[in-house]
Amino acid sequence: MFLEVLNNMKIKDVMDIEVITITKNATLRQGIEIMFKYNKGDIIVLDDKNRLFGILTMTDISLIGGAFFSKNKLDQPIELYCNRDVISTTIEGNAISTKELMKEKGIGRLPVVKDNKVIGIVRIRDLLDKVYSKIDKTMETFSYILNGIHEAVCVVDEYGKVIFWSKNSELLYGIKSEDIINKEISEYFPKALLLEALKNRKSITSIYHMPREESHVFLSAEPLYIDNEFVGAVSTDRDITEVMNLSVELEKTKERLDLLQEEMKKITMDKYSFGQILGKSEIIVDRINKAKKVARTNSSVLITGESGTGKEVFARALHQESGRKGDFVAINCSAIPESLFESEMFGYEGGAFTGALKNGKMGKIELANKGTLFLDEIGDMPFHMQAKILRVLQERQIVRIGSDKTIDVDVRIISATHHDLRKLVNEGEFREDLFYRLNVVNIELPSLRERKEDIPILIMKFIKEFCQENKINPPNITTEVLKVLMNYNWKGNIRELKNTIEHLLVFSQEGEIKLSSIPEHILRKHTVDDSGDESFDLQKTIERVEYETIKKVMNMVGNNKSKAANILNIPRSTLYYKMNYYNMD
After folding, report:
1. CDD domains, from UniProt (predicted)?
2. What secondary structure letter does DSSP report for 80?
3. Strand 42-46 relative to strand 301-304: parallel, antiparallel, unpaired?
4. What three-state secondary structure class fits 490?
5. Are 306 and 493 contacting, i.e. CB atoms less than 8 angstroms apart?
6. Of 65, 338, 518, 572, whose CB has the highest number of CB atoms within 10 Å?
7. With bands split at pLDDT 50, 70 and 90, how would you rate the model's confidence at 332?
8. pLDDT at residue 69, rounded to an integer
């Protein structure tokens, strides 16, 4: 088919229609000037009736002795110097035949004539470029295909010279393509199967061979024929070393994966356990104890509270404490476009809709099988999806989009929201039946304003984490800064506190966090709150007296904590806590 395409190419497919012409009475100088002007290597000379008279090329000009230095020659008619022995062709002429004719006559170009008029020119260079570009393109395509085959591929001509050596051949035998192309295959492989295929012109299949130590291959060779004419042979060498070692590697990989999974579970359990939830306040301890009691059950849990209070941290701790073998899968209901929500939750079969992955996709519910599905911002779940989630809770089954097959799932649902779901139910924006299904156990997390005694603990934790991550020494934090942070109304709760601590550490000076490091909006709020002449806040007064008393006693006993605890008549653990609370060195 390819040869047929080449044989059918016409002159009109390869000719250049941008031809420059000049009359025979024009001077040689004018001809040269036009050729330079249009950057052409040839010019067609016409007679008085605009018919083909001759042709002049740059090669002809170079052979004119002293043409560029003799004014007489330059000003003479161009007809004296052009080549009049011109062979022409027509647009319907065969390109391949014309090429052979030009090669035989030693002609570099032929004018193309129609109705005695020159309409184009075909040059041997352009003809070769256009004809053989098809060959090059086809060979490039073949090379791309053969290089993409898993086996090593070698092609030789009828004389045993290598004309193709694939990338996988380079890898398998360690011989570069540029080193072996146009060389006889016998120079590198004296006993190559290709030599036998060339000699006997018969197929050879699946012969075991070991080209080098610890390398195993199966070889096949086929003679090549084009139009019943023998033109060479091709071999494919399949590297079976990989196959032979596959089971061993898979076993090793499985062992490593099992080990990594165990280590990851340990790390995750340590990171997200209830023990990592910071706080000694009565309210947070109560919430932790409540969560521990429900963790080992399969009951649905609804975690409520303001943004930044640590709802996902509690959800992960519940999962770790539950002992469920599956994964913890989190999905933010407010971050998924409504049109994609169902496919994200339930997954889909291949080709279920435009843009679907060929092999389909597993949904979040299925991923959480035997584990926990955390529905964050449940209040933002689209209304039509609420009925589908309710059905999952009731029937413990799902159906992927584009499928009619039910899949059993064992999923524990933990949801979280900062919205008032009861209010959304009354307003008709949240299903009442789903609300009761999700709200079997409610854990309401306190805001940071309700657990201010935990602020120093959180501050020290965030300082330690940031300094370790950035490999810097922890700076000191002054009492004035601590007072500002304790009194600030943290609307963003723990998340806002953490971001603020990072800001303080970035702008700390000389190893100390000072008032000047505090963000302006926090400092301004503190200044407004403290603008009165006298404070009647009983809690603040008690804290101030406590701080001064502990400081005085510690100075008196030379910082001996045991003696100080006895004098203050409190347990030493209480003294440690209060000193940590007031950030006292």
Report:
1. AAA (cd00009), CBS_pair_SF (cd02205), PAS (cd00130)
2. G
3. unpaired
4. coil
5. yes
6. 518
7. very high
8. 47
Task: For tokens 């035997």, name the residue.
Answer: 370
Phi, psi values for residue 36, rounded to 5° = -70, -40
Contact (CB, 8 A) for 154 and 166? yes
Higher pLDDT, 356 or 455: 455
CB 86 within 8 A of CB 41: no
- pLDDT for the residue numbered 391: 92
Q: Name residue, tokens 């304003």.
A: 449
- Using alpha carbons, list the distances in angstroms from residue 29 to 50, 81, 199, 296: 20, 11, 64, 102
Question: Which CATH number applies to 273-446: 2.70.98.10, 3.30.460.10, 3.40.190.10, 3.40.50.300?
Answer: 3.40.50.300
Alpha carbon separation from 523 to 66, 478, 481 (Å, rounded): 93, 14, 9
Rounded to two decimals, the pTM is 0.49
Q: What's the mean per-residue pLDDT of the chain? A: 83
Query: Region 421-434: what's the mean pLDDT?
Result: 93
Tokens of 288: 């932790």
* Measured distance CA(297)–CA(157) in Å, rounded: 75
The CATH superfamily assigned to 2-128 is CBS-domain (3.10.580.10)
Alpha-carbon distance of 285 to 301, in angstroms, equals 18
Q: Say what angle helices 572-581 and 561-568 make with each other, to 10 degrees.
A: 100
Residues 103-131: pLDDT tens digits? 888 888 889 998 889 998 888 777 767 66
Q: Flag whether pLDDT at 503 surpasses 50.
A: yes
Q: Are the beta carbons of 22 and 34 closer than 8 angstroms?
A: yes
For the domain spanning 149-239, the CATH number is: 3.30.450.20
Q: Are 392 and 411 contacting, i.e. CB atoms less than 8 angstroms apart?
A: yes
Tell how far CA 545 is from the center of its chain: 59
Judge whether residue 67 has pLDDT over 80.
Answer: no
- Is the confidence at residue 427, as pLDDT, over 70? yes
Contact 356, 346 (CB under 8 A): no
397 Cβ neighbours under 8 A, 6+ residues apart: 406, 407, 408, 409
pLDDT digit string, tens, across residues 239-251: 777 766 665 576 6
Closest of 405, 407, 404, 403 to residue 348, by C-alpha: 403
Q: Are 151 and 237 in contact (CB under 8 A)?
A: yes
At residue 199, the 3 state secondary structure works out as: helix
**Spans of all domains in the chain:** 2-128, 149-239, 273-446, 449-581
Helices (H), 427-518: 432-438, 455-470, 479-487, 493-506
Segment 266-291 shows an average pLDDT of 79
Please check whether residue 169 is in contact with residue 215, taking contact to mean a CB–CB distance below 8 angstroms. no
